[in-house]
Amino acid sequence: IKEKILSSIQLKTELLNHSEILNKVNTCVIEIINCYKNNGKVFWCGNGGSAADAQHLAAELSGRFYYDRAPLYSEALHVNTSYITAVANDYSYDVIYSRLTKAMGRKGDVLIGLSTSGNSVNVIKALEVANELGMITVAFTGETGGKMKDCAKYLVNIPSKDTPRIQEC
User: Fold this and answer.
1) How far is residue 110's CA from residue 91's CA, in Å, rounded to a whole number?
2) Cα 166 from Cα 93, distance rounded (Å)
3) Rounded to whole angstroms, how far apart are CA atoms 120 and 114?
4) What is the rounded CA–CA span in Å between residue 155 and residue 146?
5) How far apart are CA 81 and CA 74, in angstroms?
6) 3-class state of residue 149 by DSSP
7) How confident is the model at residue 142 (pLDDT cuts 50, 70, 90)?
8) Mean pLDDT over residues 88-106, rounded?
9) How far apart are CA 115 and CA 141, in angstroms?
10) Gyration radius of the chain over CA positions
11) Which of 26, 50, 108, 158 could form a disulfide with 114 if both were Cys (CB 3.0 to 4.6 A apart)?
């Protein structure tokens, strides 16, 4: 247990000193603020633990996070299970997020894809569609960025190969 806690602390300490990642996150925050100032929306997508993180982060934006404020439009694209199962069955699991992105995304909106490997096909396809629409694209990944590094305007790649540590960061 102590070893896992220590590895978590070490990675977070590394991030505190990683000016490139900190600057990139700050730039993403500015992009999101500008999106909201222009009546835009923020969408999230991921699989498994990354889907759970996406849903949590979306809820913080549409909820209250630290203080009372007006709700912000933020949605995790996996929360409609009827849609997910229908599209996965009728088309492919690979297009569950790209179809919703095409339906709901608009120029200036933000799509944030989460994948510790950076290789989740359904997230990659959503980022590609978002780029076609003129959306701001962000990829949260592990160390290498995987295939997502080539299809997101902003890559936030946590310098680790350890899935739980990546997800924490």
Assistant:
1) 25
2) 24
3) 9
4) 10
5) 17
6) helix
7) very high
8) 98
9) 5
10) 16
11) 50
Unique residue bearing structure tokens 């300490």: 13
With H, G, I as helix, E, B as strand and everything else as coil, classify residue 25: helix
Q: Return all residues near 31 (Cβ < 8 A) that are at least 6 apart.
A: 110, 136, 138, 154
Distance of alpha carbon 123 from alpha carbon 150, whole angstroms: 12
Virtual torsion, Cα 27, 30, 147, 143, nearest 10 deg: 50
**Can you read off the two tokens belonging to residue 124?**
């990659």
Q: Which two tokens stand for residue 77?
A: 């694209």
Q: Starting at the edge strand that comes first in sequence, how are the strands of the sheet with 74-76 ordered?
A: 74-76, 42-45, 110-115, 136-141, 154-157
Residue 123 has what pLDDT? Answer: 98
Spatial contact of 101 and 111, defined as CB atoms under 8 Å apart: yes
For 95, the token pair is: 């297009």
- Give this prediction's pTM: 0.95
Distance CA 83, CA 1 (A): 40
